[in-house]
Amino acid sequence: MAANWQDCCLSTKATAAFKFRIKMDRIKTVQEILTYFLKHVHGIITSFEDVLDILESCRQNVLHHYLTETLSFFVMSSFSRSLFFFFNSQIITMRDYLPKIIGSESFQEFIGPYRGYDPTVNPSAANVFATAAFRFGHGTVSPILPRLNESFQEHERFCHLRMHATFFSPWRIVNEGGIEPILRGMIGSAASVASSKMLVAEEVTERLILMNSVERMDLASMNMQRGRDHGLPGYNDWRKFCGLRRVRTLKDLAEVVGDYRVAEKVLNIYKHVDNIDVWLGGLLESLLPGARTGPLFACLIGKQMKMIRDGDRFWWSAEGIFTQQQKNELLQFSLSRLICDNSDVGEVLPDSFQRGTYPCDYVSCDHIPSMNLEAWREKRLGGLERLLG
């Protein structure tokens, strides 16, 4: 950590904010979420610190050192890994996020109910998922970063920011009201919706800054070039992979895109439908009902997430990982609870992935369910007491 706040908040590579990865220093919203997850992990560990108190009564016991080290490792390592990632990457993502991204119908078709660990499933990320499909989110980046007060109205002192004004500027968090105004802006405003007329905001196609470049970068161009560098098959091949009808003519493309003029522009550039890059083609598709993706990306994301879940023998709901009581407590956790526990925001939406109107749709943090960690402590203390005899 730098010697003072100013040193650690300078927008230079050598002093990137709080030693975050450079990418996290670039994007304020990513930095905010990672900060809260880190605080949440520390909160879990703190909640289990009193478990170690039982060892004080046996300080002279020859087992004391061994038990202290073992239990400390259990608290710091097992819980910080398993609970943190189960909360974040598994329950919240699968239950609260994905159905809104690919739609409930696609979720049932491509993911469906959990039936247990399948050792024949490879859970690693497919190239097309990492390089194209899951980068659909670049089309949801808003050009404006709102900063809201406690009433979820425009902040009196700190105005909204153009996205490019937040790149590599962590000093704004320290000098301009802290994290909460930005967090309220994330809760209280909607993500952008990619459309055939505006796929990606100009803030990331005309004004994107990378730390190792003095040039303004174009995120959309980078995505398409990345797909070519990785040797991804084209848009039409992936439609065939997903059982979707291949696009053969301008009319076909216009039906998929929902805009004849846009389809015409695309074909003027690519000359043939088989030349269309998968990232661009997937982003151009009309959104499915109740989803933020079209049919192709819904398929690719859904198939990948099912493999990640079914091929993970440590999936949170797999047999033998947690007791039923512990699973019930895990299900109490939510993104809203994370925000309540780790920030000074006192009112949230019951589901932070849904947009609502203040104040009628917001509730006090006191009404957001939370986990009871006794479900874990009871099990572990019982075994420890037996060991101590």
TrEMBL record:
**GO BP, sorted A to Z:** response to oxidative stress
Residue positions binding heme b: H138
This protein's record includes keyword rRNA processing: no
- Keyword Protein biosynthesis annotated: no
Q: List the molecular function annotations (GO) for this entry.
A: heme binding; metal ion binding; peroxidase activity
Q: Which InterPro entries match?
A: Haem_peroxidase_animal, Haem_peroxidase_sf, Haem_peroxidase_sf_animal
Please give the superkingdom of this protein's source. Answer: Eukaryota
Q: Which Pfam families match?
A: An_peroxidase
Which GO terms of the cellular component aspect does the record hold? extracellular space
Q: Which UniProt keywords apply?
A: Heme, Iron, Metal-binding
Task: Tell me the protein's name.
Answer: Thyroid peroxidase
Species this protein is from: Stegastes partitus
